[in-house]
Every structure is written in structure tokens, then in C-alpha cells.
Amino acid sequence: MNASHLSILVAMAKNRVIGKDNTLPWYLPADLRHFKALTLGNHIIMGRKTYESIGKPLSGRTNIIITHQVNYHAPGAIIVNSIGDALRLYTDRDDKNTQGFIIGGAELYQQMLGLCQRIYMTELQHNFEGDTFFPNLNPDEWNETIREKHYSDGKDPLEFHFIVLDRKI
Ligand SMILES: NC(=O)c1ccc[n+]([C@@H]2O[C@H](COP(=O)([O-])OP(=O)(O)OC[C@H]3O[C@@H](n4cnc5c(N)ncnc54)[C@H](OP(=O)(O)O)[C@@H]3O)[C@@H](O)[C@H]2O)c1
């Protein structure tokens, strides 16, 4: 199965936290804009818990939700019962110029990391409390190709970096 152009998109704290109580532990509008700019017009693949955390399909994107539940309803999204089915939908897409993004959560990242060529990571330079973590990356497998430093607006600016990691051949 050709899963080229499949990327992970994640925002992670310094201590690898990505979620708390099925939501994001931070509010970072610049990261939400970054997320939107990357994903618009493309396929986004997510676990059922991440979908419920967002609460609705994201407009302008093909939303694919993975769940074991056979009767799961999410109008406006495509439901699949396996990672294989999600990949088939993506590889059979009509417009091969569109890209696929795995947008979480931890269960999906863990299972799909090995299929991805690229990771778009927003790395917050602070620790956050949480209950969901991004898997450890093997440095032998990934090259950091881009790192941009940013600060959030407001009284106590948060430092965060937009990073791109590409799989080594
Ligand atoms: N910081 C970020 O960038 C980011 C991004 C996304 C999410 N998050 C956070 O991450 C947390 C959610 O992550 P999570 O790991 O708990 O859940 P998740 O990965 O979003 O969803 C897990 C669910 O996906 C389904 N699933 C997973 N693997 C499957 C498979 N192989 N076949 C069929 N179904 C499968 C199951 O649904 P069923 O139980 O229905 O079978 C499972 O319970 C939240 O806190 C969210 O806010 C953070």
C-alpha cells in the first residue's frame, strides 16, 4: 500500500504531553492557524476520541474517523473500523495532489508513526500536566529539517517551535 505523503501533525509539550481529559492542555491560536493552513483541502485521519474532543468534522477537509464501533455516527465524516481501511480511502483518493495528515491522538500516532514520512510538530517549550503523550522518536529514523521559533501573544508568552521531521531513507 502506498502511504507516501502521509504525515503526522502534532502539538507536544516539552514533557511529551499532548492531551489532558480528552482536550488540549493549552490554548495556542497560532498553532490552530498553522493546523488549518496545513490541513485545508486535505485528508485528516483521527481516532474516535480526538474526533469527540473536536466535536465536529472540520470543514474544507476530508475527515476520516477510526473506531472499532460498527454503528458510529458522525455526519459529515467518514467512519472506518481499521487503519487499513483509512489508508485505502486515502490511497484511492481522486486527487493525488492532496495530502494525508494523521492528527491524533496518541493511539493513532503510536500505530501510524511507522507509515509516515514526515512529522509536523509544534513543540511547546514548557511542561504541561496531562494524561496523553506523544511516542518517543528514534533519532536514527528522523531528521529535523525545519525549526522556527515563535512566541504567543499576551502577558505570559509561550515559546513554541514549528518543527518538521523527515524520515531518513
Ligand atoms: N496535541 C495534539 O496535537 C493532539 C492531537 C490529537 C489529540 N490530542 C489529544 O489526545 C487525546 C486523545 O488521544 P487518545 O490516544 O486517547 O485517543 P485517540 O487516538 O484519539 O482515539 C482512540 C480511539 O480510536 C479508535 N482506534 C484506535 N486505534 C484503532 C484501530 N486500530 N482500529 C479501530 N479503532 C481504533 C478507538 O475508538 P473506539 O473506542 O471507538 O473503538 C480508540 O478508543 C485527547 O486528550 C486529545 O485532546 C492532542
Automatic annotation (TrEMBL):
Domain called DHFR: residue spans = 5-167
Q: Which family does it belong to?
A: Belongs to the dihydrofolate reductase family.
Describe which pathway this protein belongs to, using the record's wording. Answer: Cofactor biosynthesis; tetrahydrofolate biosynthesis; 5,6,7,8-tetrahydrofolate from 7,8-dihydrofolate: step 1/1
Stated role: Key enzyme in folate metabolism. Catalyzes an essential reaction for de novo glycine and purine synthesis, and for DNA precursor synthesis.
What is this enzyme's catalytic activity, as reactions?
(6S)-5,6,7,8-tetrahydrofolate + NADP(+) = 7,8-dihydrofolate + NADPH + H(+)
Protein name (Swiss-Prot/TrEMBL): Dihydrofolate reductase
GO CC annotation, single:
cytosol
Q: Name one Pfam family in it.
A: DHFR_1
Q: Which PANTHER family match?
A: DIHYDROFOLATE REDUCTASE
